[in-house]
Design a protein that fits this description.
4-stranded mixed β-sheet; alpha+beta; 5 domains; Ubiquitin-like (UB roll); 6-stranded mixed barrel; 394 residues; rod-shaped; 41% strand
Length: 394
């Protein structure tokens, strides 16, 4: 019985020893396993974390963390780098961006943190006139749209005034809107509003404006002559003084760049009627004693061609052939004659001129022709050249 007890005790001791050895071996193995791990500092899309790992490469770390790394992502060091204790690993996941620069559009994968870094990555530099639809400090998001319009120089001529400007617009209408320029229905623009603008183009605006203007204008009176047999022949008398009338006219004026180019009469209204000037012209016949001077003129009227002159005509001295100073005697009644036809010193009556004396000659006065003296050129012009009846007095 004693032997059986001893054998049983001996078996229990061995069981305890073996169990203790297994626990010790397991604990020792665990300690060795844990202490053999390497420390890795990870920065994953900006988030930092530290892990202990038995992975032999960076790729194995990402596999353990169930992270899929694409070729567009940023990884440093490379995925096949061997793991060393205290190694630092950085991973940035690439994002897809729709990037449009003027007429060029493309899809870009980027690991840039913000728009400003993305533009540097794309080697795009902006000047003060360029436009972008995003703030440069905005963080890059997946499927973000970034649009850049590059500015170019343009010349604007507005109502004749020239300015050099920059534009990022695609049409003339967009460009004018960008500059805060408004148009009226009458204004004209070249090129057409729907045309695309290009570098060094000239956009010309012609300003058309229509305004109304009301003016008052005088109405000229007419001079009316009437025969009066109570007045001696050729005498004149004012019966009624002439008075101007007045009319109000409304015009539509077209202005081109501020200057009048056309005027259209819309309406007119008479404010005051005109009063014509009435002059009585004498027709009373006079009895003239005509001295005999040959068969042609004796007792009969004489018809001659007449012209008029003044003392200040070209080549005139101011003195007549008989010595009369016409400048000193502007009211003198003198005619120039051909002495072979009408002797100098002869007194005559000229219809429409009155009594006169043949006291002058002229190189152009030959035969049946006379030259009538007036003190002013205006009177001489009014007389003109015409046939006239004269009577020789003596």
């Amino acid at each position: 019985m004693k032997n059986l007890f001893s054998i049983s005790l001996s078996r229990k001791k061995w069981a305890i020893i073996i169990a203790s050895f297994i626990v010790f071996a397991s604990t020792f193995g665990f300690l060795i396993y844990e202490t053999s791990k390497k420390t890795v500092a990870l920065t994953l899309d900006g988030e930092e974390k530290v892990i202990q790992t038995h992975s032999s490469t960076i790729q194995e770390i990402f596999d353990d963390l169930d992270i899929t790394v694409h070729s567009e992502d940023y990884v440093f060091p490379s995925l096949d780098t061997k793991i060393k204790d205290d190694i630092k690993v950085v991973w940035k996941q690439a994002k897809q961006v729709e990037f449009r620069k003027d007429d060029e559009k493309k899809t870009v994968w980027t690991t840039a943190d913000n728009v400003e870094k993305f533009l540097k990555e794309q080697k795009v530099s902006l000047n003060e006139h360029d436009q972008i639809n995003q703030d440069k400090k905005n963080r890059i998001e997946n499927d973000m749209e970034i649009v850049v319009h590059t500015a170019f120089p343009l010349t604007l001529v507005d109502a004749g005034k020239k300015r050099q400007l920059w534009s990022t617009s695609t049409t003339v209408a967009d460009f004018l809107t960008q500059q805060g320029i408004s148009l009226t229905k009458l204004d004209r623009v070249e090129p057409d509003l729907n045309e695309k603008v290009k570098e060094t183009d000239v956009v010309n605006i012609t300003r058309i404006e229509k305004v109304t203007d009301v003016v008052e204008q005088p109405i000229n009176y007419a001079v009316v002559t009437q025969k009066d047999d109570t007045l001696k022949h050729g005498a004149e008398k004012i019966v009624t003084e002439g008075k101007e009338g007045l009319v109000s006219k409304k015009f539509e004026i077209t202005l081109k760049n501020g200057k009048e180019v056309s005027r259209k009469l819309l309406s007119e209204e008479k404010i005051k009627d005109k009063q014509d000037k009435v002059i009585a012209v004498g027709t009373k016949a006079e009895v003239i004693q005509v001295a005999s001077r040959g068969s042609e003129s004796a007792g009969t009227d004489m018809y001659v061609n007449s012209t008029a002159y003044t003392a200040s005509c070209n080549g005139c001295s101011g003195y007549t052939a008989t010595g009369i100073n016409l400048k000193a005697n502007p009211n003198a009644k003198v005619i120039a004659v051909d002495p072979n036809y009408i002797p100098l010193g002869t007194k005559v009556y000229v219809d429409g001129y009155g009594y006169a004396v043949a006291a002058d000659t002229g190189s152009a006065i030959k035969g049946k022709k006379i030259d009538v003296f007036f003190s002013t050129k205006a009177e001489a012009y009014r007389w003109g050249a015409k046939p006239v009846r004269i009577k020789v007095i003596k």
